[in-house]
Write a structure and sequence with these properties.
single chain; alpha/beta; Rossmann fold; 2 domains; 4-stranded parallel β-sheet; 4 strands; globular
Amino acid sequence: MMKALSPSARVIAVDLPGHGESQILQRDDENFNQISLTIQSVADLLLKLICNITDGEVVVVGYSMGARIALQMILNENHKISGAVLISGSPGLRHEASRRRRTAIDKSRAQFLLTYGLECFIKTWYSGKMWTSLREHPQFDSLVRTRRKHSNITDLSKVLADSSIGRQKSLWEDLKHLEKPVLIVAGEKDVKFKEIAERMCSETREYGEREADCRSNQELCEMIVVPESGHAVHVENPLPLVRALRKFLVRLHQP
């Protein structure tokens, strides 16, 4: 996707904390446990990184947990972020009971990773209903092999617990403060996140109508459903997503 977009934009991919080659440098147990890797703190960290990279505005593109971070960033910092693309993302859980339950689930998952290791964790993780269509994809085995190469399970387990959607403040009510364009993407087969995407667009537009905003609702929130794909849209059917991203970028740069 980066290669496909690079002729029309400068594309930078960042390994989120606990992923890829990013490392948490304070290794002693006391300091390590005090480091917070919540969605808000990671959003703040990425903003600092972006400010070091460029003086201009950027469009943030995030998938799943990355989409939650991207939404947090565009709601936090409007002068630096000109738009956001949210792929299979969510504004969080509305109710406290749901957040507590999910926090406990993700804490248990993090402990499972530390106790039983990455191989067992990956097998359990991708057995979930959310990955049904991905498991049938030709690239699935290659993707899993790549995941198995990740060596730092301590950092990954911390991110699983700290960045849990249960620990994130619900951003549903904050959608009314959205001032920059957002493209919301969901896979056709991902029923849960397709419904979330529809609700996000619907509520954003309702807020705009209540405020009698002169801007077109379509300018602020756009949604696409990518055919023949589930949660991992960018893996399962990347070409329609690339086309939608190009179109979104062109629209952002129009006077």
